[in-house]
Please model this.
Amino acid sequence: MGTVATADPKTVDTVAPTVQCVAGTWLARTAGVRMKDVVVIGAGKIGATVAGLLASTDDYRVTLTDRSPEVLGNLDRNESIRFVAVDVEDSLKLVELLNGQFAVLNAAPFRLTNHIAEAARAAGTHYLDLTEDVVSTRRVKELAANANTAFIPQCGLAPGFVSIVAFDLAKGFEVIDSVRLRVGALPQYPSNALNYNLTWSTDGVINEYCEACEAIVNGVRREVSPLEEREEFSLDGVTYEAFNTSGGLGTLCDTLEGRVRTLNYRTIRYPGHAAIMRALLNDLRLRDRRDVLKDILEHAVPTTLQDVVIIFVTVSGRKKGHFVQETYANKIYSRDVDGRILSAIQITTAGAITTVLDLLATGKLPQVGFIRQEDIPLKVFLENRFGKVYAKPETSVPHQRSGGSGR
Model:
């Protein structure tokens, strides 16, 4: 698909109308800020939500692009968004699309990260993405060297917001002992043996279950195996398991190496999930046939908008000579807006990347080079109009039940 074409949306999708309803209560135009042109790549649930949020502010002129005219055509008509079909693997067409744009927000599958980041560099456009893929992020960092624009990868929930929280907690310690990050997007009503529903990218889930995980163990940076080092804890009377997955730390290993004894990231699921996934990936060797596993999951495991995002970060170390621990715990649920549901993973992921863009557009972040998520102050993030989706009620402190790191 080497051509660029404006799509003609004809059918109604549930994503964009929900965004408009929610945006009416969250957002207001930023005084004194010039309208900026941005491109959102990937018209799935997250990309469409991002585009809708930005367009509803009147601070951004938004182009939403996808390689599939059919996907774009199935989105609800929105006069504030320009719909463009383009194959992002066609470098010339992509650079042409990005020329003159303030920023590109990459919500496409992780395998396309390099193509889009390279096109952003060639076009002189700020670059933001949602990838959890470690190798892709290293390439983005290379592209940021001596660039005249900002490159900000991993702007979602995890990696992303969770790194901002962890670093904010860690800064308050004179000596940091351990930093432990736990995040999960779970169905509110699990009903199968996996105790799981598909809430976001199937490719992303498989990738984080298969790739090596970064960690710092006894002060030494190393790679650990995915789906291992399982632990259990309970929160608000519900039992969860957590286990190693790839990419959730973002750049924290780079930032905290030499300053911390223990640093790790684990994904939260309901008990029993990890054992089944290990059987599928290891015993049945589906880690070597990921296309087969994707087909199985997408045909057997239903999607859901009725989800909950759990964020749990603990940092321990010394303050004023005492060994103490501080914890951030939050649950964010899907929301019913005028009879429509916006999922928790849509809320948190789209809210995070739009916050980072807003901070960049208003001069609150550096305008050139590689920017880590932990470079963003938590207070500044939460005060942003998009970042307020992370506002948290009082949450119970989790209770460790068995195994794991004894947090």
Remarks:
- The first strand starts at residue 5 and ends at 6.
- The longest helix spans residues 344-361.
- The domain at 5-153 is CATH 3.40.50.720 (Rossmann fold).
- The chain has two domains: 5-153, 161-335+392-403.
